[in-house]
Amino acid sequence: MNKIRTIALSLALLLAAPMAHAQERGPLSLASASYFFVGGKIDTSTEGSPMVGHMYVESMIPAKRTHPFPIVMVHGGSQTGTNFTGTPDGREGWAQYFVRRGYAVYVVDQVARGRAAYWAPQPYGPVTPSRFNFVEQRFVAPERYKQWPQAHLHTQCPGAGKPGDPAFDQFYASQFPSLVSFPRQQELNRDALVALLDKIGPAILLTHSQSGAFNWPVADARPNLLKALVAVEPSGPPVHDIENTGEPDWFKDAERMKVSGLADVPLAYEPPLTGDAKLEFVRQEKSDKPELARCWLQKEPARRLPNLARIPIVIIVAEASYHAAYDHCTAAYLNQAGVPNTLIRLADVGVLGNGHMMMIEKNNAAIAGVIAQWLDRQRLRVAQAGR
Questions:
Q1: pLDDT grade, residue 21 (50/70/90)?
Q2: What is the DSSP-derived secondary structure letter of residue 273?
Q3: Catalytic pick from 178, 209, 211, 321?
Q4: DSSP string, 21-35
Q5: pTM
Q6: Do 309 and 275 touch, CB atoms closer than 8 A?
Q7: pLDDT at 385
Q8: What is the pLDDT of residues 69-78, one digit of tens each?
Q9: Pairing status of strand 342-345 against strand 313-317
Q10: What one-character DSSP code corresponds to residue 349?
Q11: Using CA of residue 98, residue 100, residue 103, residue 109, what is the dihedral sign?
Q12: Which of 41, 182, 198, 248 can bridge 264 by disulfide, Cβ–Cβ 3.0-4.6 Å?
């Protein structure tokens, strides 16, 4: 291990220390813990008149709150808020980590997921079927399938990563179907998250994977209420998703094109798109490195995203995840659109071996520490609350 990596690893272990020490001190000290629902309406056009479009929100408020803005944690596809409230092998999650550091935390179940129940196809559309092989290949054991260049580096899955292993079975039991329509997912969850921000006030938004596509429309709609965006391997890359094909080519662009580059719902660009005008995109002729995918960017001159430009944004990328090959494209797209951001590759700060589900892996506290340190550097203060 070279000197830089050794120093970085020492830093990562130092950052993880508050979590270990906090656990040794005993129970969480909470001022309150509860739940509520936001958004949605009663749909009398559907049999039974269900509530639709609502989001479940679980709150944990520390007894000693030392940070002015709460963190809203939003899970990814096929998941629920349990990603953040524990791990399949029984350890504390990121929610408890940040509560112990003095943050109020709100953990959601997406619209039509988990405790924000999917009632029937009529109001939402179809959902994805169960995908056992997908869970193994993408989440718990990518090293066995080697579908992207970094997959063999994965070492942090708790347990054996196979059916019959208690940690695997716990994780697989937590899986839920997702809405098939990407625009519908993004519209529904944008509106529910906006309703949540309107209720609780200025906040930090922490998203993962699928919910990373919600970052941009939520920020577009409520830029004064978002004090920071923590995008943990956000849905991407821009313009076209990537299909992993294994050796020798590794990557293939998906056919579907994202209408706003970053998402499947419109964003407020400057100059604005008027009439029949559409964004124009170009792809890199050559990738930055052989193990990376080629990025899509706007055709110059690029339009700006002014509502996102003043929000501190960090993109967190794991060493062994399928996102390791393309999350730099999201960072580049934002930069081109006039949106400064920080890209943190965990391997560069000595946090090694993680896959896409890093918040439930063995070293989840070290990763939470990296995020906490970045937030500390933003020096977020009440004076920035916008109200």
A1: very low
A2: P
A3: 209
A4: HHHHH-S--EEEEEE
A5: 0.92
A6: no
A7: 40
A8: 999 999 999 9
A9: parallel
A10: G
A11: positive
A12: 182
